[in-house]
Amino acid sequence: MATLMLLAIAVVAFVIGVVLFRSIPVLRAYFTFHGKRLITCPETHDTQAVDVAARKAAMTAIFGDPKLRLDRCTRWPERQDCGQECLQQIETDPENCLLWNIVSNWYEGKRCVYCHKRFGRLGHLDHPPALMAPDRTTAEWNQFRPEHLPELFSTYQPVCWNCHVSETFRRVHPELVVDRDRNIHHSL
Ligand SMILES: [Zn+2]
Fold it and tell me: How far is the CA of 176 from the centre of ligand 1 (A)?
């Protein structure tokens, strides 16, 4: 009986050991491949937004290298049967194609066109900064289709969230805004 007990304890300890040992690559795979990414579609050569099935990648990491499959693509459902060759780009450099990093890198170091406050890295808990279109309308960056952002970044200007809110209010309700600074400028 005692031998059986010892054997049971050994088996349980082994299983717990394996689970703990493999939990690191599992978690790493999940956090590496989680999140929306921008890739160049190998078929059309334009930018598309994709999501890797991060949970499946994590589960396959239990047994070895994580296996990547797409969970979503802006060309789906029309091209849902594609070969998913774009996964190679994600495997090669998962950090650089992450939408969050692309947007954060674009804002970082730039200044808001209104208040000239310098942007740092994007924070997940902060209000999202905005973009000003050539017609001077502003919208938070996450209101745009992700695959359009790289192109918009060449013609749109960065606006901080506070200025976006106040400028939107000014635009929508011009009759309610008393803008002393601007009145001074106009009268000069
Ligand atoms: Zn500002």
Answer: 20
Ranges assigned E (strand) in 99-143: 130-132, 138-140
pLDDT digits (tens, 9 = 90+) for 25-46: 899 999 999 999 999 999 999 9
Mean pLDDT of the chain: 90
Cα 76 to ligand 1 centroid, rounded to whole Å: 37
The helix (run of H) or strand (run of E) holding residue 70 is: strand 70-73
If DSSP codes are grouped into helix, strand and coil, which group holds residue 73?
strand
Q: Average pLDDT, stretch 113-128?
A: 95
5 alpha carbon to ligand 1 midpoint, in Å?
A: 68
Residue 30: exposure state from Cβ atoms within 10 A (0-12, 13-18, ≥19): middle
Residue 150, pLDDT > 90, answer: yes
How many Cβ atoms from other residues are within 10 Å of residue 107's Cβ? 21
Q: What is residue 107's predicted lDDT score, i.e. its pLDDT?
A: 97
Distance 101 CA to ligand 1 centre (A): 21
Cβ–Cβ under 8 Å, residues 90 and 68? yes
Of 67, 134, 70, 64, the closest CA to residue 97 belongs to 70
